TrEMBL record:
Naturally occurring in which organism (per UniProt): Syntrophobacter fumaroxidans (strain DSM 10017 / MPOB)
Listed GO CC annotations: ATP-binding cassette (ABC) transporter complex
GO biological process terms on file: quaternary ammonium group transport
Domain of life according to the entry: Bacteria
Protein name, as recorded: ABC transporter related
Family annotation (Pfam families): ABC_tran (PF00005), TOBE_2 (PF08402)
Tagged with keyword ATP-binding: yes
InterPro entries listed in its UniProt record: AAA+_ATPase (IPR003593), ABC_SmlMolc_Importer (IPR050093), ABC_transporter-like_ATP-bd (IPR003439), ABC_transporter-like_CS (IPR017871), AminoethylPonate_ABC_PhnT2 (IPR017666), Mo/tungstate-bd_C_term_dom (IPR008995), P-loop_NTPase (IPR027417), Transp-assoc_OB_typ2 (IPR013611)
Length: 366
């Protein structure tokens, strides 16, 4: 099968300075990003932040007030969706109910393949790719949600599009089907080497599937990075709280390079000088980075704490800890392996010592 054979590593999709308003409401504000050929990008953000609008601009379903869209080196800003050669999968399967799975898939092919045998061969190949061999004769109503979304995916890739656009393709499915299908979509996308943009509000989905994640809020792009980069070094407290769980320790002041104080609580953090000395700061730490030591000590940021609550999660416990801090108390949540909880005999209302590794504390200007 012949897809657009993009050269890996080249800049393939480019959106530049895209701004889009609906009446007086600005849905996208000066958004720019690009994708390399074959890359899988995920657009992640809360409801109403402009994710779908951005995808629709890339597709040519919306015309922005300003900005350009380049696909495979060609400025397509003035072209409608029908001329952009994009494959789209929506959240609602959007299949034709009166056509079988095969006919739905063939629908995306007919203008290109006039030869009926070729269409049949290609449809068979696509059914095989999406794991639906033997179900081609069924109508959408006879298929499960996951199967319908497989048909929608086969239809979207049938014509070897230049770009695959997925708008929350898994959100209508139950958790088990969703996680299986996300692995399958990713495998197929890699196999075909097709540059893909997927909208999701599910951070787990974005972390699991994307080469890079674009985090948005209120029409703006806040951070672009690999899943690792966005998880390990979120650009702002908003990004930090949107992806994964994060503890924040607020109302600190940076009193010396790498040293932050709040009353009698003093914490060391690698902040690379991002917070000016003497200014108010927020420190952030992931629950899995807090080290619980029972009665033993810790080398880094050793603090006494009290176990306030414990929630069993199978492989780990989510432990709620309170730190006695002058002028009030700070609450932290720690994820501690179940084996360690049992070994140390941790229980509610137990005084413990915790440690926070210096390089796991992230400092932000408050
Ligand atoms: N056709 C429209 N007319 C007016 N306002 C619109 C239109 N389409 C979108 N908006 C507004 O633009 C903003 C961004 O919408 P968009 O659908 O892009 O958000 P989203 O991040 O995809 O949200 P969700 O995750 O809830 O689907 C929203 O406040 C929405 O109400």
């Amino acid at each position: 099968m012949i897809m657009n054979e993009p050269v890996a590593g080249s800049r393939y999709l480019e959106l530049r300075n895209v701004t889009m308003s609906f009446n007086r409401f600005t849905a996208l504000e000066d958004v720019s990003f690009d994708a390399e050929a074959g890359e899988f990008l995920s657009i992640l953000g809360p409801s109403g932040c402009g994710k779908t609008t951005l995808l629709r601009v890339a597709a040519g379903l919306e015309k922005p007030d300003r900005g350009t869209v380049v696909i495979a080196g060609r400025d397509v800003s003035g072209l409608p969706v029908s001329k952009r050669n994009v494959g789209i999968v929506f959240q609602s399967y959007a299949l034709f109910p009166n056509l079988t799975a095969e006919q739905n898939i063939a629908y995306g092919l007919t203008p290109r393949f006039c030869d009926r045998d070729r269409v049949r061969r290609r449809v068979t190949e696509l059914l095989d790719m999406v794991g639906l061999v033997g179900s081609g004769h069924k109508y959408p109503a006879q298929l499960s949600g996951g199967q319908q979304q497989r048909v929608a995916l086969a239809r979207a890739i049938a014509g070897a599009p230049a770009l695959l656009l997925l708008d929350e393709p898994l959100s209508a499915l139950d958790a088990k089907v969703r996680s299986r299908l996300r692995a399958e979509i990713r495998q197929l996308q890699k196999h075909l080497g097709i540059t893909t943009l997927m909208v999701t509000h599910d951070q787990e989905e974005a972390l699991a599937m994307a080469d890079r994640i674009l985090v948005m809020d209120q029409g703006r792009l806040l951070q672009t990075g690999t899943p690792d980069e966005v998880y390990d070094l979120p650009a702002s407290p908003f990004v930090a709280s949107f992806i994964g769980s994060m503890n924040f320790i607020r109302d600190l002041v940076k009193e010396a390079p790498g040293i932050f104080r709040k009353g009698d609580l003093s914490l060391a953090a690698d902040d690379s000088g991002l917070v000016p000395q003497g200014t108010r700061a927020i420190l952030a730490v992931r629950p899995e980075d807090i080290v619980l030591n029972g009665s033993g000590g810790s080398r880094e940021n050793a603090l006494p704490a009290l176990v306030r609550g414990m929630e069993y999660r199978g492989a780990s416990y989510r432990v709620t800890l309170s730190l006695g801090v002058e002028g009030g108390c700070s609450t932290l949540e720690a994820d501690v392996p179940t084996r360690k909880i049992r070994r140390l005999g941790i229980h509610e209302n137990m005084p413990v010592n915790i440690g926070i590794p210096v390089d796991r504390l992230i400092a932000y200007v408050a």
